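Attaching the record inline, Q. Sequence:
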Amino acid sequence: MKFNVFRKSQNESASGSPESQNTDTEAQTHVTLLPGRAYTPYATSSFRQHSMLTTATVVYKIVCVISLPWVARIVDCFSRVTGFFIALVFLIATYVMFAASKNVGMYLASQIFLGIGIPSYVMMERVFIADTTQILNRGLWTALPTAVASIPTLYVASIVAEKMLEHSTWRWGYGMWAIIIPVSLAPLILIMWKLDRRAKRYGVTHNIKSTLNLPEGSWYKKVAHLLYVELDIVGGLLMLTGLSLFFLPFTLTGSASILRWNEATTIVLLVIGFLILVLFVLWVLSKFPKRPFLSVSILKRPSVLMACTLPLFDAINTSLSGAYFPSVLQVSGHFTVGEAARIPRAANVCQMVGAVLVGLLIKYTKTAKVFMVSGVCLIVLTQGFFCYLANNNGGFGSELHWTVIKVFEGFGRGFYNIPTIISVQANSDPSQIAPSIAMFTMFNQMGAVIGNSISASVWNELVIKRLTQYLPEASKSRAREIFGNIRVAIGYAEGTPEREAIDRAYREVLQKQGYISLGFLIPALILVFFIKGFDPTQRTSVNVGDDGEVVLTSAPGKDGEAQLNTIAANLSSSPSNSDISEERESSEITSQEKKSELNESEAK
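Structure, as predicted:
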């Protein structure tokens, strides 16, 4: 039996029709390229819901925000390999669901699984690097693996996506990752599992209180303790509900959307969402949760709080002006699918190159603050040029113009991002590496939620109005169809009155989004000067106390020389009571032997 993955579905594409066109989107808030992101506009357009693109993104980002603290807590309670395994399971489920989506509802449901899988993997990668490197080298090793793996695939991906959509469907574009990801991630999980076993064999293990304080009795009492006390399920659900009710209406409200700003439904959702978010803050700050959903203690240090807030504003900027940017490139810029993919990805490539470069500079100059400041300044400058090129007296920037802008933007983001995340780790308690990384990433994702919500609100409100205003009278009735399906928009021939009207509408809305984004960068520009620097030469020592506790301490180092007692300590799983008893007995025996030797020497 022959099986052709490149066979087209009759109801999904027809060669030569507007629907046969496709587009791309970007994910610039992360260095890591999300597999299958190129098919998002294509998939939403196939459901005649291209405007739902930001709704899908906001759903994904909200789940990211919620999942990160839980994954960090689970990782600390069990092992690092558990985090990688969670990421693998959810990623496989994600792409199976994407490929099988029959409507936009199922497609949005897939974003929930993606919102757990992708950030779990990204966070675990950073935790693994933080566990196995010292501060001086951490910037380089944080950037290097991703850069080496992702720079070639950023451009190869656009070619593969183009060919996949040309010869097959977006469903196989997603489905193939359900096979590729487990095959590529399995060796890493196996290595982590072996390190975990080795740590147990040498007796270097975490003493996790959540496994020691489980109540006696039935299994459901232990599960309830784990969910309510250790994972703070109440706080997590409050935050999930509040974010969903407050931000999703922004993506569903507008002139051509299912909700209107003056409708009671929209107002009720916003008010209830805001009140639940206030209740969540009060819950976290109260004495009810023994281990709050958010580790507020991490944010009590001003430098850590400011360092986490910096990517929040940058993510708002990137998401707000970038959500529909690839679509506008194809419509107003008349770029091909490959060109529309490669222009925004130039920022991703240069971000990785800049991150590696700044990692080397930190290592050899032993300073970091200057790179953080220069990076933010460069991002603000490029965003100003973005606004200019989006609608320059009725013109639109060329491929060269946009590429140059994205190159400098990428270098700026790489220069500030690495020193900032290392600053969070260096200024946090060494025993809270996973929660601090989760907090930093969560602020980034939160910025993306806000940015995408505002972007969708502006897009849904203004595009349909501009189309109705500029389209010829004979074509005004097609305004909603053009708004809902990008392939209809790019199906009009260049130079026709309809296409010129569409181009103008898209340009003007993109420029407005760019100006709003620029406004959110001003606080970041001020904030970066007040972030406390850190000593890149400080080192982290890993020791096991007499009671079996893993003790992490930071101290200034000499040229970054690391007193690294063991790497496996940070990668191990929680021990059983017998393991801790054995460690205590061993430490007591060693202590008695030393005392006896000391007494003998004094006697002599």
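The two ends are 88 Å apart (CA to CA). The first strand starts at residue 539 and ends at 544.

More tomorrow.
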